[in-house]
Amino acid sequence: MRLLIRNAEIVTMNREEEVIFGDLLIEDGRIAEIAPQIEKKVDQTIDATGKTVIPGLIQTHIHLCQTLFRGQADDLELLDWLRKRVLPLEAAHDEESLYYSAMLGIGELISGGTTSVVDMETVHHTDAAFRAIAESGIRALSGKVMMDHGEGVPPALMEDTATSIQKSVELLEKWHNYDDGRIRYAFCPRFVVSCSEELLIQVRDLAEKYDVMIHTHASENKGEINLVEQERGMRNVLYLDKIGIASPRLILAHCVWLDDEERRVIRERGVKVSHCPGSNLKLASGYAEIPELLACDAKLSLGADGAACNNNLDMFQEMRMAALIQKPLHGPTSMPAREVFRMATIGGAEAMGLADEIGSLEVGKKADLAILDLNHFHNSPREGVDLISRLVYSAKSSDVETTIINGKIVMEKGVMKTMDKQKVLQESNRSIRRLLDRTAKEGVGTHS
């Protein structure tokens, strides 16, 4: 399959961060050539005159299993949000509801130019989410959540350690490196509060054995940190380092409340940090001190988290918020647009361990990209304005016209190609109604 994108403004995000005006040729899922003009016989041509091509956006913390819960858990802080609303709803999931929750989230992500995600699923029926990922065409690093410890957890979500490990390994052996590596597996212990030390140590050893990533939450909320200190005798990141999990394999979501010693561990161990500004603000958790992490050369990326705690999965909103929330405290130059756009592209690729494959538009890399129309009232005029500034501060997900993943068009001119949008919307509504009825009958997870 040869696909030619013609006459585009191409934001490469290569080492020189070049913007090239011209053509981009895709062959067999990879970028074969970028040049002012390409004259070759192709199977399909996309006329991108007046349009902007960017690397596919990469979100490094997503919960596809929670997309159905959008608007069901508003105005709560993290631990109440989990125990009163989200965990009961996760426990109520069945195979069909999880499939449509994943499809609904993926549809939103692809529509907004996100081509890769680091996803954390729920405890059961995780195979259904992987089927949705496989069918939709999105690139994903995903895994079932692991929980064998803690209070306030619905019995349906509480596993014994051996079962949690066994089910995770079975999913890994089935899905890791599916479709030439488009889907990869990560071990996903939920957070220290819900995991025994035995489970975490086994995850450490298995991640090394299978050469896969570990994806978990850390230091999102002060109450969470207090629980970890009471149980484990030290703060989150220091504890993870003590038991040998802090390494380049580790992706930590949030990291809102870190001290200097934890920042040192993150830098020295090569831990990846996923910054989720929208979720952190909505749950009143605070916001991560990203300038300090940048100053210590931490590996940073961005994620929307889940629709249950953010209410959207829009990377353009996350980029804008990531830039703005630091400025009142650290000054107007503290988070320039270019730094934020790096976090959303090549930074995400580094977090996934795929910087040689995705995150920029360069010959030989996977053809993951989005085509935007920036010719609207809200992002004009363009004359004299830095293009990256327009993308971070002015662009919206609705500006995305076409999304390509692995060289395949998954959305073209706003039309989804890998799923039936109307069916996903219809079945999503049916599914959440079923879960709400189920939790109401059990007398948990209802609105107070």
UniProtKB/TrEMBL annotation:
Keywords: Hydrolase, Metal-binding, Zinc. The keyword S-adenosyl-L-methionine does not apply. Residues 52-410 form the Amidohydrolase-related domain. Zn(2+) binds at H61, H63, H217, D305. InterPro entries: Amidohydro-rel, Deaminase_MtaD/DadD, Metal-dep_hydrolase_composite, Metal_Hydrolase, MTA/SAH_deaminase. It catalyses: S-methyl-5'-thioadenosine + H2O + H(+) = S-methyl-5'-thioinosine + NH4(+); S-adenosyl-L-homocysteine + H2O + H(+) = S-inosyl-L-homocysteine + NH4(+). Binds 1 zinc ion per subunit. One of its GO terms (molecular function) is 5'-methylthioadenosine deaminase activity. Substrate binds at E90, E220, D305. It holds the Pfam family Amidohydro_1. It is an enzyme of class 3 (hydrolase). The keyword Zinc applies. Its EC number is 3.5.4.28, 3.5.4.31. Its cofactor is Zn(2+). Transmembrane segments: none annotated. Belongs to the metallo-dependent hydrolases superfamily. MTA/SAH deaminase family. Catalyzes the deamination of 5-methylthioadenosine and S-adenosyl-L-homocysteine into 5-methylthioinosine and S-inosyl-L-homocysteine, respectively. Is also able to deaminate adenosine. PANTHER family: AMIDOHYDROLASE-RELATED DOMAIN-CONTAINING PROTEIN, AMINOHYDROLASE SSNA-RELATED. NCBIfam families: PRK07228.1 (NF005557). This is 5-methylthioadenosine/S-adenosylhomocysteine deaminase. It comes from Marininema mesophilum. The gene is mtaD.
